[in-house]
């Protein structure tokens, strides 16, 4: 912690006092930045960009050159794990991810293996090492993974879906098969996150993009329990136990009580959840991250500043707030508006 | 109430004892039924089906011939009001609704008028009268409307959207213009619902499909407040004050406390909300409707039966539960599975 010149994020995640509220942005290295689009063009396609450590490092650092952000997050994709399992990932602009070999049977699940970390995912750790080196302690580096449930959803659906019919059919008809899949993914996620720490990540985040399509009981059984086991594995390993872990379930605001009991250090909030109510719910157990509606960034600077203020006010006085959007930044946003937001967070939250 | 031979729905909405839990299904008259697809083909297109009272009556009654449902719901669309305002609605299979003249300015909002009910929407009331006549007191008839916010969303976006960029830009940049639009829609919705009651509707429901894309504060300001005013108008009119009103905000589980204070009689719950937790939240103020995940209907009969039991158990003992799906039934469902669900609700909830 002391080795970082800017440790606001780590302090806030541990609910310690800060000089002002730290801020970073989900998908801060992304298509809204012209320099990102340039590097992406150079890479040829999205996966090449992810798999070329020099390029992943470059796009990771781009937003930090523009904005006064309090963290970097390694540029990668949540689907690197199923890709490493041999499912044949492709990502096409506008269409979303697609797997050539989606999981369609218990037999296919039984054939899966936890990836060999250095052999199959070494490019991610290379990128983390490289970014860690270039950052040189200026700000912390966040490593991440998709949640086991979210990864399972993509692996079984094979592509973007609106009704989640395949994964839910598996859940209803063959819950034990789904648990077997989640077990493999839970072990993979824990190992993958631990390896990112070994390579230089200072904070970890688990993105549960699709936990919110489950009922309250299914969420606990199929999403939260797997995340909890991943967190427990990290917290019982000497190398990773002191690394703050952020859980983010999009649409999970109703389940914060159980999520806060998972052993994680912070919960990501989408913008439907009041931070004030969330604080009442979680007490002092965890910090909170969020939760400006990404659509606010399309508005004018004064609207953005008032909206930032409103999020800060909603959290209120006290420690344990990391400012972020409630979901990833969208491609059409004007980068100048991002600067307005980042600067407003620091100015309006400055402790006197 | 006494004129109905099956008044389970009305009793449950008023939190009175019932012999077994009433059940109906959102979009129960729909594409999963071969006889619906046949009538739809006969009509030529979706809007002609809505606008031809004989055909709307026919498809409304189709699910009641197959299943032991405790209510009919008039076959119509939530976008009849903006269509009657002259926005030029078209609905194409697979693509969703589209307006030829979307609302793109304050000037366009100022030009809008509350529709002339009998002139512009008479076909809906004709259908209600016809269905009411044919039902002849066998089960209650539900009338409905889209919420002002949800209608505004479609009117401003002009078509289906994933990011709600236009309506949110209006909300952030010109909140007074959006309020002017919501005022017109609130008045239209109240009048439209009252006219359905006059034509024979026994219960009313307001569908707030898109309230869940708002933040907690925006939801109160732009969606709930308009619904509350619609409900107040209905509750202050001698003709409609005794008609139960159900509010349903998809994704609104976090806001049940405020929703229950709106003056409505029941809240619709999507499947992410625990009915037990919702009951704790709303107390005895309102009944609850829901909330089986529609995807369960793709599962096998024994899974469906267990899932029905689990929803009934989640609500627990006591009055005030209307069984439904947590969202509309999807086109691919096997009608035999719907029968399994409906019969299981009645059997497993039968009071001895």
Summarize the structure.
Chain A contains 15 helices and nine strands.
* Apparent shape of chain A: globular
For this structure, the CATH topology of chain A is: TIM Barrel
The residue ranges of chain A in which pLDDT falls below 50 over 5 or more consecutive positions are none
CATH architecture of chain A, please? Answer: Alpha-Beta Barrel
Please, what is the average pLDDT of chain A?
A: 96
Secondary-structure-based class of chain A equals alpha/beta
Task: State the assembly state of the protein chains.
Answer: homodimer
The top-level CATH class of chain A is: Alpha Beta
Q: What is Rg of chain A?
A: 19 Å
Q: How are strands sequenced across the largest beta sheet of chain A? A: 1-4-5-6-7-8-9
Count of discrete domains of chain A: 1
Report the sheet-strand fraction of chain A. 5-15%
Give helix % range of chain A.
40-55%
- Tell me the number of helical segments of chain A per DSSP (H or I, 4 or more residues long): 15
Elements of chain A, N to C (H/E)? HHHHEHEEHHEHHHEHEHEHEHEH
Distance between the termini of chain A: 23 Å
Measured by residues with Cβ under 8 Å of the partner chain's Cβ, the largest interface is:
A-B, 38 and 38 residues
Number of strands of chain A: 9
Largest sheet of chain A: 7 strands, parallel
